[in-house]
Amino acid sequence: MQYDGDGPAFNNIKTDQEINDFFTTYFKDILEHIPDLVEQYKTNPAPPLGTVRCSPWNAYDKSLLIGDSAHAIVPFYGQGMNASFEDVVVFDKLIDEHENWSDAFKAFSTNRKPDADAIADLALDNFVEMRDSVANPNFQLKRQIEMRLEAAFAKAEYQSKYSLVTFPQEGISYREAMLKGRAQDKAILWLLENDHIKVEDDLNDLLKSIQQKTAEVLWLRG
C-alpha cells in the first residue's frame, strides 16, 4: 500500500540518512536489534499491498479461480488464508449440489464473490481504523463498551465487528459480518456522540440501546 503524500512513509525513504532518521524517530526500540539496519532495509524493501477484485472466476467451463487468485486482500484482518479455506468448503458443497463442473463453477463464481468483496472491504476498514481511529476518544470508548459486552454476553448476545469476522458464529458470512459490524460501529458512535450511552452504564441497558440503534441503521441501509 503506497502513500502518495509528503509525510514519512516507507516508499518515500531513499537515502541511508533517511533510513536511519526514520527508524530513529518512529522505531527507536528496534535499532539495537538490527545493527545492519540500512543494509537490511535495502535488501528487504517493503512490498506493495493490493486487493484483487475480478469477475467472473470461471472460464470455458474448464477452469476456476479460487483463493488469492480470485480475491487477494490486504493483511489487516489476517483472513486471507481463512477465506481461501472457506472457498474450498463452499465449493465442495456446490459440487454436491450440481450435476456438472460447469454449473458448479458458475455457482461458485456468482455466490462466493459478495463474501470475497466483503472481506476485502473489511480488511481495508481495519487498516483505516488502525491508522486513523485508535486515537479518537469516542473510538476508545466504543472499544471499552464492546469489551464489556463481549465479556458479559459472549457470542450469544453481542459480537463486535472484529469478532464477527474473526470468531463468527456458524452460518455468518463475511458479507453479513460486514453489514452488521459496520451498523453496530455506527450505532455505538452515534449513541456516544449524542450522550445516549456511557461506558459505565448497566450492561443490559447498553445492549438494548445498541441493538435498537443497530437495527435502525440496518433498516435505513436496507
3D structure, described in words:
By secondary structure, this protein is mainly alpha-helical. The protein has three domains: 10-43, no CATH class; 58-119, no CATH class; 134-221, no CATH class. Helices cover 63% and strands 2% of the residues. The chain has nine helices and two strands. Helix 6 crosses helix 8 (174-193) and helix 8 (174-193) packs across helix 9. The longest helix has 33 residues, at 101-133. The model has no long low-confidence stretch (mean pLDDT 91).
Briefly say what this structure is.
This protein is mostly helical. Helices cover 63% and strands 2% of the residues.
* Unreliably modeled segments: none
Shape label? flat
Order of strands in the sheet with the most strands? 1-2
Order of helices and strands: HHEEHHHHHHH
What is the CA-based Rg, rounded?
22 Å
Q: Count of helices?
A: 9
> Distance between termini?
32 Å
Number of strands: 2
Q: Approximately how much helix is present in the residues? A: 55-70%
Structural class: mainly alpha
Biggest beta sheet summary: 2 strands, antiparallel
Any idea how many domains?
3
Strand content: under 5%
- Average predicted local confidence, pLDDT: 91
